[in-house]
Amino acid sequence: MKTSYLIAGSLATVAALWLASPYVEELIRGKGGAATAPAAAPPTADVEAKTIRVRVRQSTAQPFTASLVLNGQTEPSRQATLKGRTAGQIVAVEASEGSIVNEGDVIARMDIEDREARLAEAKALVAQRRIEYGAASKLEAQGYQSQTKLAESKALLEVALTTLRRAELDIEYTVIRAPFDGVLQTRLVEVGDYVGVGDPVATVIDLDPLLAVAQVSEREFDGLTQGAEGQARIITGDVVDGRITYVSSVGESGTRTFRIELEIPNADLRLPAGLTSELIVPRETVMAHKLSPAALTLDDAGRVGLKVVDDDNIVRFHVVRLVADGPGGIWLAGLPDEVSIITVGQEFVQAGHPVIPVPDGAVAPAQPLASGGAS
Questions:
Q1: What is the mean pLDDT of residues 112-131?
Q2: What is the number of other CB atoms lying within 10 angstroms of the CB of residue 211?
């Protein structure tokens, strides 16, 4: 029993000494003992330890001409539907569909029938009326005929001349000709067909110049003017310079869009109408930065922008405007001409926070960079 008491007492003594050890250490410090507290870290080191390192890239703004890109298609610059101007049977066709025609080329001919006889009759009547008018003029000058008779003779001559002109035109209208240089798109008649006045005969289109046509929205309409330069990127791969020749002054009621026409050269008629194309129309020249889309971020209000580092190494947020985009990056306006853009770590810092900027390409610092963000 005495042995058990000794063991229990020893354990109690050890426990009491362990619990009292802090007080003993404090007592030793107060008496100038060897135990001392570790020295506090310098304030500047503590601040630096808490400051996030971010990777930045210096960017310089460049003049950039913003362009409006519209989807459209090619169309003929002119198109005419030829119709019968006199009635008759087609006796010859001299141009096939798809062929190139010049102004005045014959497309089809009608049967003249008795038109030449009527022309001869009209000519004879004109000759008779000229003689009658000449005789009346002499008699009136000698006082043997009144002015009324002279006026009547003159009127009859004018009627005869009008009849002659009609007979000549009637024969002329039996030949259907191309109104301008172009392509015979359709021919609606064959030999033996009867054509009445107003019946369609053929369609001729003009492909030089060619039109690249698109619809522009009401938001993008402002600033488009006739005479401005532009380009058409055709689905064939051709990129052709052109000029805006028409901008509609009235929008489509259903779509609120406006028609725009870009005139492009097509001297060899290689490009047909109906090809898918893009209209590229320059709008304005602005100072812009070319960047990766990954550098974009949002502020608390949901605005798209960039986080940058100012000269005092403080994070600043700039709202930006997208000017253009492409496979090589995006062009952004709304930034200072010279700016240090945060490319890694922008999601871990807020505007107004101090940071330690590390230029792109620099050796990695001892403290790790903030992870995430644009690369």
A1: 96
A2: 25
Residues 252-283 pLDDT 10s = 888 899 999 999 999 999 999 999 999 999 87
Q: What is the residue-wise DSSP string for 288-320?
A: EEEE-GGG-EE-TT--EEEEEE-TTSBEEEEE-
User: Tens digits of per-residue pLDDT, 71-108?
Assistant: 999 999 999 999 999 999 999 999 999 999 999 999 99
Paired strand residues for 257: 217
DSSP annotation of 103 reads T
Q: Which residues of 29-59 are buried (b: 16+ CB within 10 A; e: fewer)?
A: eeeeeeeeeeeeeeeeeeeeeeebbbbbbeb
The 10 Å Cβ neighbour count of residue 342 is: 26
**Whether the model pTM is above 0.85:** no
Q: In Å, how far are 5, 53, 363 from 366, measured between CA atoms?
A: 60, 10, 9
- How far apart CA 150 and CA 309 sit, in angstroms, is 102
Could you tell me which of 303, 295, 328 has the C-alpha nearest to residue 56? Answer: 295
Contact 108, 94 (CB under 8 A): yes
Q: Report the SS3 class of residue 141.
A: helix
Residue 89 in contact with residue 194, Cβ under 8 Å? Answer: yes
Single out the residue of 74, 93, 98 nearest to residue 203, CA to CA: 98
| pLDDT of 178 strictly over 50 | yes
Structure tokens at 143: 């006082």
106 neighbors 184 (Cβ within 8 angstroms): no
Looking at residue 340, what is its pLDDT? 93
Q: How far apart are CA 187 and CA 30, in angstroms?
A: 117
**In sequence order, what are the beta bridge partners of 54?**
357
Cα distances (angstroms) measured from residue 102 to each of 5, 107, 179, 206, 348: 132, 10, 8, 10, 71
Residue 359 three-state SS: strand
